[in-house]
Design brief:
Strand content of chain A: under 5%
Distance between the termini of chain A: 17 Å
Helix content of chain B: 25-40%
Radius of gyration of chain A: 15 Å
Shape of chain A: globular
Oligomer: heterodimer
CATH topology of the largest domain in chain B: Thrombin, subunit H
Shape of chain B: globular
Number of domains of chain B: 2
Number of strands of chain A: 0
Strand order of the largest sheet of chain B: 1-2-5-4-3-12
Number of helices of chain A: 7
CATH architecture of the largest domain in chain B: Beta Barrel
CATH class of the largest domain in chain B: Mainly Beta
Number of strands of chain B: 12
Structural class of chain B: alpha+beta
Largest interface: A-B, 42 and 46 residues
Largest sheet of chain B: 6 strands, antiparallel, barrel
Structural class of chain A: mainly alpha
Radius of gyration of chain B: 26 Å
Order of helices and strands of chain B: HHHHHEEEEEEEEEEEEH
Number of helices of chain B: 6
Number of domains of chain A: 1
CATH superfamily of the largest domain in chain B: Rod shape-determining protein MreC, domain 1
Order of helices and strands of chain A: HHHHHHH
Chain lengths: ~160, ~300
């Protein structure tokens, strides 16, 4: 429990920092969605779900750092977390490798929300590159699993 | 009445506390997104948050700073070599400069004759670029000067090769600039060879500009230099903006579209120049009070 309390801020800070690091142009559009992944794992392991207030605040931090309209990432993150929460039973049933595929759905919803808000605000985006982060996140998920398990193992109710 | 206390299904649908919290914070987020850019108190929240998060941005930029540091350790030979080359270049540039000064003086005289409002020799300041295009869909960069240095919204940002963009957001110690290649950016330009006035829009792909709706007999060629025209009062006139590389002429259309590469090195370099131009009244450009500009003039 003590380890978990320490691991969470470290993982979140690392995820936010990696969201900002300058990447070569060729792979920048495929930057994995690390912050949603940390929260997805947290939702996956705990029956009560993650702290919604913390998720909302982290979303606002992302908005400020990425110069997005305030609330955009926060809203997308909450909706994504809620979907993971509802799909938690499915994720517990399937094997460890299959959780990555299940995760593609909430990450897709997260991306759609961002895409929709950007679209309403007149920010054009290339449709094709929008989906690359989901693919890279799904591929990265099994490798990230050992790191994320610092937060704890999944518990069944 | 048994079914409320008993183990049976309650008639009220069960909503988890997590679901309630998600709905609550989502509504707040929705309201914030809606009022973003309209409410001044929200802008203050963003200001404070970006001040708090500034150390994080510096830490993330740290590896770049370290690699810059290593470049200082040159060997003696390379330094001597470089020194000699620079001396030669300096001589060459000096000669060019003296010619430029003559030309500038001549231009100034001619402008006086024409009673033109614009002047050459604007006040500039070198700023450090903290980060470039964190989001592949918005071509923006963050610079290390803010309202405390007299930066104002709409201010033009250039580098040694041409126009980079304009300031869209000013925080106390840093600002965000929108690059000319962003899909939401437009800049009034003229074709240097013919003086044709038009507008260059960003195409959102980080490397090219579009000059749409040129009349089909407009005199533009591949290789033409386009420069800022200064119309609209936001950008100073005469800075290079791009070079035309393709002219798209779709049959049946009344207009042709020209595509240009920006001359500024958008993804290279760590420094840029901010320009304090004079902004004519009534152009909608937000100006800082005069003392802010005089403050930076001090050495």
């Amino acid at each position: 429990m003590r380890r978990r309390v320490l691991a969470l801020p470290i993982l979140l800070l690392a995820a936010i920092a990696l969201q900002l690091v300058h990447l070569p142009d060729a792979i920048a559009p495929a930057r994995p969605l690390l912050v949603p992944m940390v929260f997805a794992y947290w939702t996956y392991i705990s029956p009560a779900g993650p702290s919604i207030l913390l998720a909302w605040l982290v979303g606002l931090v992302l908005d400020v750092l990425l110069n997005a309209p305030l609330g955009e990432h926060a809203l997308a993150l909450l909706i994504g977390i809620y979907m993971v929460y509802r799909m938690r039973r499915i994720m517990l049933m399937v094997s460890f490798w299959q959780t990555a595929l299940v995760l593609a759905l909430p990450l897709g919803l997260y991306t759609v929300v961002l895409f929709y808000i950007d679209g309403v605000r007149g920010q054009q985006a290339d449709l094709w590159t929008r989906w690359l982060p989901i693919a890279s996140s799904v591929i990265l998920w099994p490798f990230l699993f050992p790191v994320l398990s610092m937060l704890g193992k999944p518990s069944r109710d | 009445m048994d079914y409320l206390s008993g183990g049976r299904r309650s008639p009220i649908p069960k909503v988890s506390t997590l679901g309630l919290k998600v709905i609550f914070f989502s509504l707040i987020s929705g309201a914030m997104i809606y009022s973003d850019g309209k409410s001044p108190s929200l802008a203050k929240v963003r200001d404070v948050a970006s001040m708090v998060l500034y150390p994080l941005e510096r830490i993330v930029a740290f590896p770049q700073d370290v690699s810059d540091l290593f470049e200082h350790f040159h060997t003696r030979e390379t330094l001597l070599e470089e020194n000699r080359e620079l001396r030669l270049k300096n001589l060459e540039m000096g000669a060019n400069l003296s010619r430029m000064q003559a030309l500038e003086a001549e231009t100034a005289r001619m402008r006086e004759l024409l009673q033109a409002a614009t002047t050459l020799g604007q006040q500039v300041k070198i700023v450090e670029i903290l980060s470039i295009a964190q989001d592949p869909y918005k071509q923006q960069l963050v610079i290390s000067k803010g309202a405390e240095d007299g930066v104002y919204r709409g201010q033009a940002l250039v580098d040694a090769h041409g126009v980079l963009g304009q300031i869209v957001e000013v925080n106390p110690t840093m600002s965000v600039a929108l690059l000319i290649t962003d899909a939401n950016h437009g800049i009034p330009v003229e074709v240097n060879r013919t003086g044709l006035q038009t507008i260059a829009l960003g195409r959102g792909d980080a490397q090219s500009l579009s000059l749409p709706f040129l009349s089909s007999n407009a005199d533009v060629k591949v290789g033409d230099l386009i420069v800022s025209s200064g119309l609209g009062g936001r950008f100073p006139a005469g800075y290079p903006v791009g070079e035309i590389y393709e002219i798209r002429n779709s049959p049946g259309e009344h207009f042709v579209e020209a595509l240009a590469y920006p001359t500024a090195k958008l993804n290279q370099g760590r420094q840029a120049l901010l320009i304090w131009g004079e902004h004519p009244e009534g152009t909608g450009v937000e100006t800082e009070p005069a003392h802010a500009v005089t403050k930076v003039r001090k050495p």
